[in-house]
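Handoff note, outgoing to incoming analyst
You'll be picking up this chain. Sequence as last confirmed:
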Amino acid sequence: MVQIANIFETSTEHIASQNHNLSSNEVLSKISMRLQTLGFEVESGKKADNKISVPVLFGKNGAIFKSFDADAFHKELGIVLEVEAGRAVANNQFLKDLFQACMMQEVQTLCVAVRKNYRGGNDFDTVCKFFETLYASNRLSLPLKEILIIGY
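Most recent structure output, in case you need it:
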C-alpha cells in the first residue's frame, strides 16, 4: 500500500488538484506506467477491451455472470484502485466504489484516490471522515481487509 501512495506522492507536480483540473482518466494515465510496474492491470480506455473487469458472480461452468470495472487491479494482491475526480463526493462515487469492491470476488483491499481540492471543498477530508465514522460506529462489517484513501 505504501508503494501505491508513493506513486501519487511522487506524481504530485503533475496531478495535484490544487494546481491541475484533471479528469480521473487523465490522473490515471499519468500514473498508469508506474502502477503496471507494481503488477497492476490498468484501464487504458473506455472501450470494452480496454477496461479491467473484476468478477462478482459466476454462472454455469464457472462463466462470469456479473463483473464490475475497475481503474486498476492487482489480482495477486487483491487490490482494486479507483481514481475519482469531481464525482467522488458530489455524486457519492466513493460509496459506489466501496460497494463494488465489497462484491468483487478476489478483492481484499480498496484504494480510492480523490481530489483534495474540488470546487472549494476537500473531497479527501470528506471521504476520510466518512470512513472513520463507518469504522468507529462498528455497525457495518465489510469483507475488505483494508481501505486506503489517497488525496491528490
